[in-house]
Design goal:
This protein has ten helices and two strands. The chain is mainly α and 251 residues long. Bound molecules: zinc ion (2 copies).
Length: 251
Amino acid sequence: MVKSRSELMQPQRSGCLICGQELVYGQNEKVRCFYCHKVSDSNVKCKDGHYVCDKCHSMPGDDLIETYCLSTELKDPLELALILMRRPRMKMHGPEHHFLVPAVLLAAYYNIIGDQKEKKLKIKEARVRSSRVLGGFCGFYGDCGAAVGTGIFMSLITGATPLSTREWKLSNLMTAKSLSSIANHGGPRCCKRNAYLAINEAVNFLKENFNIRMETNRNLECEFSDLNKECLKEECPYYPRNRPAKSVVSS
Ligand SMILES: [Zn+2]
Ligand SMILES: [Zn+2]
């Protein structure tokens, strides 16, 4: 039976971590981990062939974000964000979203321009920088960490420093655009909504200022509204309009 998103997010759930389907035990064979892409021998995978290695299975949120963003070839930052958000170790809200936003943008950006070496360096640096953006930044400092995440992204791809000129302007403008969009949707905070808004602003900003086009899922419907007791529901642009909540796998 196909599981709902909220069932999938329960830490005690069984089944495939990617799609929730039953695990199938068979012959030992070579399988590739969905997150880190390493090949190992295993006798278990889901009905759709998903396999997650033991290391990725037990990784904390930030480690998994880094591992997956380094290995993936996807070019859609929203799709990347959703794949990571579906993991039970990614909380509904939390500062791991401050790293998630620059990580998925950097992964998509460097996958598009085809520079894996820079991607690795920049994602590692984004993790260091975003670790200083603490939980609750939005309410306590008036600067949502998802918006800061887009500023970190812009700073890293332009090589901005406090002494730069155009790069400095672009980095601060990037944060400003995301923050304005996030603020105008109103509180209370939702790390999912703010991450989607910030990523969309970064996609628009890249197109306007760099003529780089990131193809994204423009009709994104949030999969996590059931888990957020402060969800704005109809006031949120990502709230699913066709209730009940969609399932992971279409039946
Ligand atoms: Zn699966
Ligand atoms: Zn793995």
